[in-house]
Amino acid sequence: MEKETRLQRIIFHLRREWQIYAMLLPTIIWFIVFLYKPMYGLQIAFKDYSIFRGVAASPWVGLEHFEHLFSNDQFIRAVWNTIKISALNLVFGFPAPIILALMFNEILHATYKKTAQTIVYLPHFISSVIIAGIVITAFSPSVGIVNTVLGWFGIDSIYFLTKPEWFRPIFVGTGIWQEAGFGSIVFLAAIAGVNPSLYESAVVDGANRWQMMWRITIPSILPTILIMLIIRIGNIMEVSFELIILLYQPATYETADVVNTFVYRQGLQSGRYDFAAAAGLFNAVVAFVLVMVANTLSRRYSRTSLW
Amino acid sequence: MMNWNLYSRGDKFFAIVVSILIGMFTVATLYPFIYIAAVSFSSGFAAQAGKVVLTPIDSTIEAYKYILVQPDFWISYRNTFIYTIGGTVMSLLFIIPGAYALSRPQLFGRRFFNLFIAFTMWFNAGIIPFYLNMRDLSLLDSMFGIILAFAVNAFNIILLRNFFEAIPQSFEEAARMDGANDFQVLWKVFIPLSKPAIATITLFCIVARWNGFFWAMVLLQSQEKIPLQVFLRHTLSNLSDDDEFAITQLEAAYSAETVTAAIIVCSIIPVLLVYPWIQKYFEKGILLGGVKE
Amino acid sequence: MSSVKLSQLVKKYGNLEVVKAIDLEVQPHEFVVLVGPSGCGKSTTLRMIAGLEEITGGSVSIEERVVNRVAPKDRDVAMVFQNYALYPHLNVAENIAFGLRIRKTPKAEVTTMVAEVAEILGLTDYLHRRPAELSGGQRQRVAMGRAIVRHPKVFLFDEPLSNLDAKLRSQMRAEIKRLHKRLEVTSIYVTHDQVEAMTLADRIVVMNDGIIEQVGTPMDLFLNPANTFVAGFIGSPPMNQLPARVGGTAEAPTAEIADQLLPLPPLPELAERIGAQVTVGIRPEHANVHKQGTNPIKVELELVETLGSEALLHTTLAEKPFIIKTETEGYYDMLHDVSSFTVNTDQVKVFDADTGRVFGQGAA
Lengths: 307, 293, 364
Ligand SMILES: Nc1ncnc2c1ncn2[C@@H]1O[C@H](COP(=O)(O)OP(=O)(O)O)[C@@H](O)[C@H]1O
Ligand SMILES: [Mg+2]
Known about the structure:
heterotrimer, B: mainly alpha, MetI-like fold, 15 helices, flat, C: alpha+beta, Rossmann fold, 2 domains, five-stranded antiparallel sheet, 24% helix, 32% strand, binds adenosine-5'-diphosphate, binds magnesium ion
């Protein structure tokens, strides 16, 4: 039996399988150029970056930007706002799709159910700009339906979008309106996976629908709920800042400004690239740590990791 | 299991309450769209007076006329189609072969490549380095730059890769014994077998492209390159900032609000048209019947 | 000339050796069945022949050409998979034509070839149906059609019938046999079902734990198992195996089973083993309860299982289960009174108690 060298094996493998490497190559190059190269560019967070010198040639300044960052009230406020908005999203936005899915599961009329589902999935597919347009129109002091209705009860018009105390409720409420329906899909899928004989034996045991929901459906989809919760916790730093940019204004920065909007203003609007990159890096690192912790938790408690 | 005739009184009551609640939520979801449509067809005066609730007041299509005669509106509309179609095609050109390669057990370094791609879901450099990178690549204010730079994301690749991995190996093996190479296996077997997954990803891509706004706003400067969403955003902020517009048009047949609403309607319509068409693929389990495990 | 030849063929997954240096020659037109318990390496062996699995060591030759490095498509073999692997998006005709189309066979030719195959398999009326609209047996036929249409040198089958119910399975078995008679293509067929192996094979290869235990015609394996594994695998029910001590003399050895004596054939190996432990094997069919011979062996009857023309008597002998298969015709009333059997001495097999190898078959 002839022994072949490692090199021969590799050549044989490539001759036989070159096509899959050819298929993979463009994707890998794309990731390097558009996602990994910017990671290299992150070093400007530790540099005095100048457009003319470029990333590599700009001089190092150590942690200077971070020192400025942590003594910057606006940044600290943005971090807190990020956490507060996420927390509200978690408390009100997380249960909504679960409740919706449980309710869909109780509906017998197939057409009614299908129609309702089709409609509530829809806002997920609408752009932030349009959502913002709808919100701005609906809450407008003169034309808005909200103030029109308040007017029926003798309440004066409120300039909702200029009032800091109204920003978070409106933002979180919009999020629920937009995403609760689509978010229910994953829970509906989990419910569909419950063994029907569990319900049949419960019927035989005389359970009613309410009891079945609590005793069978919810315990059965608990793993899914847990995983989705962990994902949410892992994504605390990822507030959908597109919508915030469209809805906030200087009057509401106090409650509306989050890290990413801060980065956007400092970096892209004021040109402080290095400083903004430092803020972005802070956000990315915290997010990364949270995702890692979340995955470890998920692996430990549900024996399912997210990847 | 669920049979109305076997329900107890309590169960029936529960089911009715739930149906009503679902109905309310559905109406609440739908209402803003109806409201916007109503505003768009109302006169500016009626809208300003806060009279519009459900149906158009003083029906008129003036707001649409105002929009539809603007060349910039049509240019941005055309651009959005270019970004959506070009971007989706570009995405599929990367994602489908990439996901196929990553799903092959014989790929050397498969774990590494998968990690290489998944890592970008957990850590990304953020807005500023991405922007500066685009500038270094001379892709600012470039339509092609927008199409290329957002073509791929880890989530879609992994989704399709998982779908490919779930296809029984014998499909590939049978094709291979019949003489198919990887390109043929992908094209003649995997893609037809993955229609639901590919339709889903296509939908994701189309929606993301149609709605994409932030980076288009940041990266594109030329008026003739911006997509509809950015045009919409410009119009929105111009209209609300432009007091003059509000005042001079107060008596007119359209107002800032009705024009806004009209643009929103024009932008949503294509989404509504595509939505049910691709939705049907979600449920079509095309993989049934060919395999018995 | 051999059609397929395996020489010292090895397959390892990491450190796990699942095929351990096996040798096999398959003659042209032969129908060879690889049989063995699940996980013994049958599929792996077949897949190495097909080219779907990389070969760790040794070689596979097809018509005297070593094909270790030849791509599956260039080996000119066709395979029928356990799950059929029919493309759900193609109809029957397109499924059968798939390989021809890939190989750029002219359209007109494809049509005639598909029609011809459909005719052979009785699929002519179903050519425009999708796999989802076919019954299990029809899908199975389409899978075979896809293999036949290419006129390959070798057919490979990997448990093609295991998804069918019992009745359909015996029907398809007959059909495969008929097809082989008609097409005479060399076939290698993998199954874990020894009945399938016995009915289909020209030669059976019994595998166990990555090695070949025995190769032979079905009757050969039935009558002359090379070891206790084959004896316990082939036949239904399989051969009874009893621990015993060799007694008597070199000319007339006996087996001492508890306190009973069973005459053994005078094998040379036994002469050297007087007083040693062996395993005695008796086929259920060879234990005769109707003929009163000398030295009947006493058993305790526990259960009579009637199968119609035959019955299985579940008995114990020296506290071990012992099954007797007997005809019922004319004897039915007395089956419940059976208390002993006789057996022809030359039908008693004796195996080495340690290695399990049979005595008296020379080097085999
Ligand atoms: N890809 C693989 N990696 C590791 N072990 C494998 C792989 N494929 C098969 N095996 C192992 O090889 C052995 C033989 O498998 P196989 O040839 O499929 O058995 P069978 O005789 O049932 O067809 C089994 O123990 C199986 O677990
Ligand atoms: Mg097998």
